Amino acid sequence: MYSEKFEILIVKTIGFTIKIALWFVIPFYLLVFLLSYTLINSVTQNAIQYRKTVKALAESETNNRQLAYYDQLTQLPNRNLLKDRLEQTIKTSLRNSTSFALIFVDLDRFKHINDTLGHFAGDELVKQASVRLKRRLREDDTISRFGRDEFVVILHNLRSNIN
To answer: Is 84 among the residues known to form the active site?
Structure first.
């Protein structure tokens, strides 16, 4: 008799324990799982956004450098970079006792071409002139777009017979 009551008590206790597990323990673990999943997902999304931001900043820095030191039409160094390269050339020339040449190139009748054929034709002329001038220089020489139709060339390490 006690064994039957004991068995019934055990069955009821097990059933009650299972109900408690189903009502409290499993939802708790489910809640912990959902919170963990949400947290991991949020951290992952933040990491992805961080990488995108860093990449965008690097690209922006590259674009800013391009805008600050290079002519947009010809992709040649502009006045800012020309100034830096000229200073470096002077220092190197003095240190190594070598000569250099600074050449100013101006396209004649450029205004006439712009006025008669339009700015697009003038831009094409400037681009072609820059390509042709650059093709004639050594790799370590510098050509820079100085103005609308003006270029400056620095020829490095020239040999001179003048003392």
So the answer is: no
